[in-house]
Design goal:
It is built from twelve helices and nine strands. It has 375 residues and is α+β, with helices and mostly antiparallel strands.
Length: 375
């Protein structure tokens, strides 16, 4: 999150925190993990009314942000959702909304985009395949023209909200190059298979496309020219995910520090022992580095900086690895209680573990950095 929030952003931050604490507290994530809970009815629609799904959309299409910095405003929501492990398809809905706002036809912006912004419809992004592949160099889905129609085949994996989505943004590889299509989830030939996840408060699915036919009007932008837009979508997704993960780490570190100052062993607070002091100091150092990267990425993507491509991979690689290292050590500092089902630590560890993989693993992003550097 930005170090210096404007007055409007501070007010918005407090509004989001109060809303989430009332509508989607940590008990919701626990009930979903226990298998006996449901996402509160109307929760996502009320979140959309607060602007969660419209900040990356221009005012002429019904969107808008607090101070003309939509992504910097939106990461406030993502970080607060990480703090309470709040459910909801924040990333896919905003990725699809941004794609339609930037490249969609007037008809797509007037119908599908409006439904997403209002919270009436959920959107999903189908991009990666079984072997991964989040960058803009290809797609797991293929498409070919057949008269006035486009035929799509293939499998998309790790699709957040894929089973609940009303609209799917499909990134496809065609003879012309990388293209994108927006289609209804109930289109004949599209099947969604829910997949298990360590984080039960986030739902994923595998989407299979078998001779799916859509009209050419389903194209988002020009055929074969979507590589730049896909890269932009990935940057948005990583920026929001990074902010969410930092919200997770802030909350866990804060609770661990409190525990270290309360827990007494051998007549002393365990936080007074030098060995733990050093570990906590190291974690604070890495936390600040993560915040710096997450904020820099959001600023860079917001500004359209060409360097955002490299920065996105640096951020994903660093936070992806350090988050689990910090969380695992916070579990150890808690001792035996930290590994119990009743404690909340494992809930945060689950979300961070999933975040580490979705949109590319740290190893995949280090490889991408090498490719970008010509190595």
């Amino acid at each position: 999150m930005e170090l210096e929030l404007s007055a409007d952003q501070k007010s918005f931050h407090q509004t989001i925190r109060k809303f989430l604490e009332a509508e989607a507290p940590l008990s919701v994530a626990r009930s979903l993990t226990d298998g006996d809970g449901q996402i509160p009815a109307g929760y996502w629609t009320r979140g959309a009314e607060l602007g969660w799904t419209s900040m990356l959309v221009a005012e002429e299409d019904g969107g808008g942000s607090l101070a003309g910095q939509p992504l910097l405003d939106l990461v406030i929501v993502a970080e607060e959702m990480g703090r309470l492990l709040s459910p909801g398809p924040l990333i896919p809905c905003n990725v699809v909304a941004a794609a339609l706002a930037r490249s969609g036809s007037p008809e797509q912006r007037g119908t599908v985009l409006q439904e997403i912004m209002s919270g009436e419809a959920v959107a999903a992004w189908a991009k990666a395949g079984p072997a991964g592949g989040w960058d803009s160099t290809g797609a797991s889905l293929t498409a070919r023209a057949d008269g006035d129609e486009i035929v799509v085949n293939g499998t998309a994996c790790y699709v957040e909200a894929g089973g609940e989505a009303d609209h799917i943004l499909a990134t496809v590889q065609s003879d012309e190059g990388l293209s994108q299509l927006i289609l209804k989830a109930g289109t004949p030939g599209v099947t969604a298979e829910p997949v298990g996840s360590l984080d039960a408060s986030r739902r994923f699915a595998t989407l299979r496309f078998h001779d799916v036919r859509v009209p050419s009007s389903a194209l988002v932008g020009e055929a074969g020219k979507a590589a730049e837009q896909v890269e932009h979508q990935l940057q948005i997704a990583i920026a929001l995910q990074a902010a969410e993960t930092m919200g997770i780490l802030d909350q866990v570190f804060e609770k661990t520090l409190e525990y270290a100052l309360e827990r007494v062993a051998f007549g002393r607070q365990i936080g007074s022992y030098q060995a733990l002091k050093h570990r906590l100091a190291d974690h604070k150092l890495w936390l600040e580095a993560g915040h710096g990267l997450a904020t820099s990425l959001a600023r860079s993507v917001q500004a359209g900086d060409p360097g955002a491509t490299e920065l996105a991979s640096v951020t994903k690689a660093h936070i992806g690895d350090q988050a689990l290292s910090i969380l695992q050590d916070c579990v150890q500092i808690h001792g035996g209680i930290g590994v119990t089902w009743e404690h909340d630590l494992h809930l945060y560890l689950r979300r961070a573990t999933v975040n580490r993989v979705v949109f590319g693993t740290p190893a995949a992003h280090r490889e991408r950095l090498c490719t970008l550097a010509g190595i």
